[in-house]
Amino acid sequence: MSDDRVFLITGASSGIGAATARAAAQAGHRLVLAARSSERLQALADELGGSERAIAVTCDVTDYAAQEAMVASAVSAFGGLDIVFANAGFGGARNLGTDSTDSPERWREMVLTNVLGPAYTIRACLAAVTAARGHILLTGSVVGRRPVPGSFYSATKWAITGLAEALRLQVSATGVRVTLIEPGMTDTPFFDNRPANALAPEDLARAVMYAVSQPAHVDVGELLVRPTGQAL
Fold first, then answer.
1. Distances 10 to 121, 169, 177, 216 between C-alpha atoms, Å
2. What is residue 188's DSSP assignment?
């Protein structure tokens, strides 16, 4: 059965975002695809039906004005906004010392992208999603539940765990649903050396689609998805 709701995804040009876009298109959603990579993003929008079904919006999630424009584009193209998946983010080295391969500047960019970016997405989209009694999803991580040695990325995902619950508490009386998606090891461009025995992006896309396909009275708060056998 087709679902014609408007579904916005940040970090949509690759990995979990792109896999979710394809799954959502197959379910009949209209799509707003956002990322910094405009060429790949437009190619994906064309693949998923072109401007009648999917639009590409170049957006740096660390820029609040760009996020406001992203939401305005969604409303202008499709008349509203039902589902938002705040998915953009990146990781780094597991080393908090001065010998880390990550610079302090990269840490700052990680906070801006992984923490402030989703917070900006929530702020920009909340009025539209509330009007639709819609759904907001955030990409957390298994390391947002259990820290790993030396991981600054883990700290950013702990922040997302808290952000998701803070949002849920704020909107609990409005009909808006909030879901935290927590991937384990996943084979995406996140890694320079692709991991063996990992989840595929499509595995996480199915988790997202499970949450958004539930009836309105069912709010799936968290989905922790690990590859079988992952110790963490």
1. 9, 23, 18, 23
2. S
Q: Are strands 54-58 and 83-86 parallel, antiparallel or unpaired?
A: unpaired
For the chain, report the end-to-end CA distance as a whole number of angstroms: 37
H/E segment holding residue 75: helix 64-78
Dist. CA 97–CA 82, nearest whole Å:
43
Q: Which of 64, 120, 153, 210 is catalytic?
A: 153
- Annotation says 153 is catalytic: yes
Q: Contact 134/176 with Cβ under 8 angstroms?
A: yes
Give per-residue pLDDT as tens, 6-64: 999 999 999 999 999 999 999 999 999 999 989 999 999 999 999 999 999 999 999 99
> How sure is the predictor about 189, in pLDDT bands with cuts at 50, 70 and 90?
low
Report all structural domains of the chain as residue ranges with CATH numbers, in order of start. Answer: 6-225 (3.40.50.720)
Q: Is 106 left (phi over 0), alpha (psi -120 to 50) or beta?
A: alpha
